[in-house]
Amino acid sequence: MSLLHPDRLFPAEPATRAIARRLYDGIRHLPILSPHGHTDPAWFADNEAFTNPSALLIQPDHYVFRMLCSQGVLLEDLGIPARDGAGAEADPREVWRLLARHWALFRGTPTRMWLEHVFSEVFGTQERLSEANADAQYDHINECLKRPEFRPRALFERFNIEVIATTESPLDPLAHHAKLAADPWQKAKGRPRVITAYRPDPVVDPEYEGFIRNVEEFGALTGEDTRTWSGYLHAHRIRREYFKSHGATSTDHGHPSARTADLAAAQCAALFDRVMSGPASRDDAELFRAQMLTEMARMSMDDGLVMQIHPGSVRNHSAQTLARFGRDKGFDIPARTDYVTALKPLLDRFGLEPTLSIILFTLDETSYSRELAPLAGVYPSLKLGPSWWFFDAPDGMRRFREMTTETAGFANTVGFNDDTRAFLSIPARHDVCRRADCSYLARLVAEHRLEEDEAHEVAHDLAYGLARKAYRL
Amino acid sequence: MSLLHPDRLFPAEPATRAIARRLYDGIRHLPILSPHGHTDPAWFADNEAFTNPSALLIQPDHYVFRMLCSQGVLLEDLGIPARDGAGAEADPREVWRLLARHWALFRGTPTRMWLEHVFSEVFGTQERLSEANADAQYDHINECLKRPEFRPRALFERFNIEVIATTESPLDPLAHHAKLAADPWQKAKGRPRVITAYRPDPVVDPEYEGFIRNVEEFGALTGEDTRTWSGYLHAHRIRREYFKSHGATSTDHGHPSARTADLAAAQCAALFDRVMSGPASRDDAELFRAQMLTEMARMSMDDGLVMQIHPGSVRNHSAQTLARFGRDKGFDIPARTDYVTALKPLLDRFGLEPTLSIILFTLDETSYSRELAPLAGVYPSLKLGPSWWFFDAPDGMRRFREMTTETAGFANTVGFNDDTRAFLSIPARHDVCRRADCSYLARLVAEHRLEEDEAHEVAHDLAYGLARKAYRL
Amino acid sequence: MSLLHPDRLFPAEPATRAIARRLYDGIRHLPILSPHGHTDPAWFADNEAFTNPSALLIQPDHYVFRMLCSQGVLLEDLGIPARDGAGAEADPREVWRLLARHWALFRGTPTRMWLEHVFSEVFGTQERLSEANADAQYDHINECLKRPEFRPRALFERFNIEVIATTESPLDPLAHHAKLAADPWQKAKGRPRVITAYRPDPVVDPEYEGFIRNVEEFGALTGEDTRTWSGYLHAHRIRREYFKSHGATSTDHGHPSARTADLAAAQCAALFDRVMSGPASRDDAELFRAQMLTEMARMSMDDGLVMQIHPGSVRNHSAQTLARFGRDKGFDIPARTDYVTALKPLLDRFGLEPTLSIILFTLDETSYSRELAPLAGVYPSLKLGPSWWFFDAPDGMRRFREMTTETAGFANTVGFNDDTRAFLSIPARHDVCRRADCSYLARLVAEHRLEEDEAHEVAHDLAYGLARKAYRL
User: Fold this and answer.
1) In what helix (H) or strand (E) does residue C360 lie, and over which residues does it extend?
2) DSSP class of residue C162?
3) Alpha helices (runs of H) in C248-393, residue ranges in sequence order
4) What is the ipTM of this complex?
């Protein structure tokens, strides 16, 4: 028995499945472009062995531990360190056994598909995880991880990744990227394999922990007087150039909402002074973030960086979990998100500029057919990012295409983002998306809404061409 | 010709249908657990014959009369009594003929499926209802109802119901449940067959008709001084125990919104004083309901009752219908419902408690993928109730699974609720859900997203195991 | 190779497809009822030849030029005239070449289907449009347009249109309709072929360009003193009668929201005075529109005109495009729309009136299952308009049926509206809807949720009967 069926995710109807298979065969071996994600650049810069199966596959993966948490497993028992010290000493083998014991929870979820893809394709396991085989599978993976062919760079090559973007704060020195720049591996293919992306939230969001201190550090780093609006803006320009010199082709903005603003310069300066002089009011914080999206658009028109806007997540919903374990512990929850009103100030200013490119994401599926596809289907500056986060799964992907294609077509979308910290799952995630897209296209072909020769071209675009173009790779 | 095709609701694609059949065959004969509904406990306590087909199948069923009303049939002509006396004298046979004349309206609706299941499986009719056969069908059903095997307890046993929960106000003396307790039929299977559930809206919602009078009666009933906040809370504790002694394992809360609050004790007392001293302001009423959800959670942690929250219905939307016919006349309309912000106060207080169990329902499907699945997929205290009310139908059920499984899996759902007053439709409703769930699972299996052996286990859980566990039956 | 496959849009599963084919064969040749649209009555009154392929098929079609615009094609290069004179001189052949060059953008969109239907069925072209054949196709269509059988009336008859409604402002003299009335062609079938509809936005919406001037003109036209509330209302009654005498059976209301109001007469008069005495505040404008929906309902009860409410479009989202090119340039974007609260004042007043008929549309799909189907499924005055604008495509149509049928059935819907300026696409649009509806019905039949004999009746209703009845044609 194999964990992965060759026809997985294809529609059951035989004629449609046959079309899906043909489309998929044409694109399955294309290189992976990963233009947005959260892998650790140190992996590629240092190329050290991963430590153990639990540290690699469970502890950094919020999809995994949030599901376990929902059924009463304690984060500390999964080895996730609490501020009071709990969890730090968890035995990785025991953590693994917890996953095995609760394996049934993941039925029907993408986590199950991704992990079985990793087990099967990366580690050669063909048996379903269970309490009975948990130790054996742990030992097997653990042994693998010690071998050179399981080091980050070897996997990178085996995964056929052409380029991967990590995401860094403007305050990050980009030391790993700098180290990589000096390493022949990085340019073995003629272009950098690991690039960065500019994620300025820590110096753009007045509600970010340590915002004022961050802006001061931002000044120190750039030699600008970031206590003034003009110095602050200039620091961004300097830092964006620095990021570009480390391969960046994009910026990324993780705001609570998609609100934008287009204030007069004097208002901007006054607003900046207010947010820099103590805890900002909620309204000021929101307005400042809104204005900064427009400022970032203005800079993008000059330096060519593509903007990504990832709005709509209520971060750290559980106050208790935030207090005890810190950020990013699976308690980020989507919220209703408006785009049509929120984006108007920015779009009225720059929306028709041919050099501007903004990729919009959402965690509120209702906005796809109502707002995002109509917006991206007319504004030349707008593109639709792929289905994101909770929607990064076969049914989520199907709904994305069904709710956007009839209004925005394919060319206003940008291919797939794996958006993950879980490096080993990257091929799995791209494969799921390729299969889901081919399934969608196969239905169009089977229903005579698209000819098969065209579907092959579209499949290629969705798997490779659009990402390359949209992210200016 | 038969009214019920054995393959009804299964996917048309032959291989998928074959899987669905196999899954369904494994669970079709499981006993029915009905942990949330609105049947009349007097039926089971007194076991008297139902009066006539229209009184049994039309007049109590708002799904039936709202559709007829939408096409111009007057409620009074259906024998629904108006306050001015109209409707009281309607001839049940004429009412039945109205249903038959308008039978085509129900094409494609669950009402059609439920009623044909009742006609076919309960009464043995195999002919589609029409004006031509209306009288004959009326007579046939009417004759059946006089026979002992159509009395409530006989049908209860024939329907293979293991346990059914009714829903009562805290002010209800539970006389029928008490009568049942003394009847050997009630415990013939070792456990009670008919249990109650604690629905405190009349003493929790300051906008409920007669709220202040209700709270006073609540005091009289419990011997507590319900004019004080502490006495009022204590009355709840007393009454919850009383309900538990009549089998209750759950409470139920039908609020306009899902808003919760976590006020300091002094604020609670002051708020309580305000809502008890005359018509509450809208804001106070909403805040009081919000605080009471948190209080109910606190009590649940002590007494183990599972909480159900059914928010988001705008009750009695038509002022004219309310004035003339009273509540529950088919004019309750869903409204947009927020959960992520609304539930935070309660969840910040008790959301991680392992002993707390809250089942969330919605009439706003958009919240499934955006809010409810992400919340239930991480908070151990939260579970997702099944698709409810207007969504209690094959496509509604399919969307529920498609929008929740990828994020929350199956284990964070609780099986099916029939939630009905229409006793005879209970097997039909459970059967529709079992078929819909098996169809969903069959698609996962056919697309190799789940192995068939696992799908059999999941099907069993969805039909029986999860309800038993979630409702602590 | 043919551009149109006979099985297009039918489900791929063979048994289901066979049912869909049978259903479609029963209705494919039914005449077209087009009760809501935006064709130019001058076409039918004057029956002159269309000028060239681009002026006919590209420049008036916002679906076409918005997609091209989204990928950087300039509106002026498409021959859409800017206020600065750009675009006026564009060569229609060059415009056509732009369409051909970007033809791939339309893959998966309804525009592609509609245009290929036009190319194939109207002009007999069987080759996919490309840069290589662009000139030849242009020439071929251009030649056709010069022939008598491609004049508007000939096409009207060839398209088997029984009746078409255009949409006019109350200020429109209806000269074309008057000319038609004197032409034997108009009544060759015993009833008028081209009728008007009353769209009073220019004199109802205080934010409409020139509102006060429009209301004054409205007075001049009707001989009423439209500076007074009572004179203004009376002018509507006069003008509605005038429209009825030119065939109108309906009114149409394109408000930003679905808000209604039911103010006392004195409040109405005061509000009217305010909106007529200078720029109205946003609140007053919204309240006035809200009150006017209720006034229109009151008039409809007297004169029998069916009301259509088309809310929820944010018009002219791009300020730059509005300034340079004017209204209706593809930048109307849907917004979230509430119905349940918004409609209550009107419904509390007139919602149960048997003579009132209101057809509700939406650009916010989330309202279908949550608000619109529950409302239309109980209020006798309400019906659901078909999927509209961005949703006027196979998947949008499927979601419409899936989200409304289980609650509101079929009889509370009104058949199809093509709602288009693109006269040649009318048969294509109706054909897409007929195929989509038959596909939905075929799934119900294949899943034994509806018997095939009933599905044939429903298919006929959806294609013809419901529109005739709902629009009182």
Assistant:
1) strand C358-360
2) E
3) 265-276, 282-303, 319-325, 344-350, 366-367, 373-376
4) 0.97
B109 Cα to chain C: minimum distance (Å): 4
Residue B405 CA to residue B416 CA, distance in Å, equals: 15
Helical segments of A223-343, H only: 229-245, 265-276, 282-303, 319-325
Interval C172-191: pLDDT, tens: 999 999 999 999 999 999 99
Residues of C in contact with B105 (CB under 8 A): 409, 411
- Closest-CA residue in chain A for B458? A107
CB spacing of B376 vs A336 below 8 angstroms = no
Enumerate residues 6+ apart whose C-beta is below 8 A from B273: B229
Q: Which two tokens mark C376?
A: 């239309």
Dihedral over alpha carbons C145, C147, C148, C154 (to 10 degrees): -40
Answer whether 0.90 is exceeded by the pTM.
Answer: yes
Q: A467: which residues sit within 8 A by CB, 6+ positions away?
A: A33, A35, A414, A415, A416, A473
Q: What is the CA radius of gyration of chain C?
A: 23
Does residue A100 contact residue A131 with C-beta atoms inside 8 Å?
yes
The span from the CA of A363 to the CA of A390, in Å, is: 7
Strand spans (E) along A292-449: 306-309, 313-314, 333-334, 358-360, 382-384
Residue B305 and residue B197 in contact, taking contact as beta carbons nearer than 8 Å: no
Using CA atoms, how far residue C386 sits from A15, A367, A453, C61, C194, in Å, is 31, 20, 33, 20, 21
What the block records as the tokens of C271 is: 């509000």
Edge-to-edge strands, sheet with A382-384:
A250-253, A306-309, A358-360, A382-384
Best residue of A8, A107, A332, A369 to probe chain B, by most B CBs closer than 10 Å: A107
Sketch out chain B's domains with CATH numbers.
Answer: 14-41+158-470 (3.20.20.140), 49-150 (1.10.2020.10)
Q: In what order do the strands lie in the sheet with A32-34?
A: A32-34, A161-165, A194-195
Of C341, C370, C377, nearest to B365 by CB-CB distance is C370
Residue A220: how many other CB atoms lie within 10 Å = 11
| Contacting partners of chain A (3+ CB pairs under 8 A) | B, C
Q: Which residues of B touch A399 (CB under 8 A)?
A: 402
What are the DSSP E strand ranges found in C139-188? 161-165
Local confidence pLDDT in tens for the 473 residues of chain C: 578 999 999 999 999 999 999 999 999 999 999 999 999 999 999 999 999 999 999 999 999 999 999 999 999 999 999 999 999 999 999 999 999 999 999 999 999 999 999 999 999 999 999 999 999 999 999 999 999 999 999 999 999 999 999 999 999 999 999 999 999 999 999 999 999 999 999 999 999 999 999 999 999 999 999 999 999 999 999 999 999 999 999 999 999 999 999 999 999 999 999 999 989 999 999 999 999 999 999 999 999 999 999 999 999 999 999 999 999 999 999 999 999 999 999 999 999 998 999 999 999 999 999 999 999 999 999 999 999 999 999 999 999 999 999 999 999 999 999 999 999 999 999 999 999 999 999 999 999 999 999 999 999 999 999 999 999 99
Please, which contacts does A233-242 make with residues 24 or more away whose CB atoms are closer than 8 Å?
A233/A295, A235/A170, A236/A170, A236/A200, A236/A203, A236/A295, A236/A296, A236/A299, A237/A299, A237/A302, A237/A303, A239/A170, A239/A198, A239/A200, A240/A198, A240/A299, A240/A303, A240/A305, A241/A303, A242/A174
> In chain C, what residues touch B110 (CB-CB under 8 Å)?
406
Report helix angle A92-101 to A134-146, nearest 10. 130
Q: What is the DSSP string of C79-129?
A: TPPPTTSTTTT--HHHHHHHHHHTGGGGTTSHHHHHHHHIIIIIT---S--
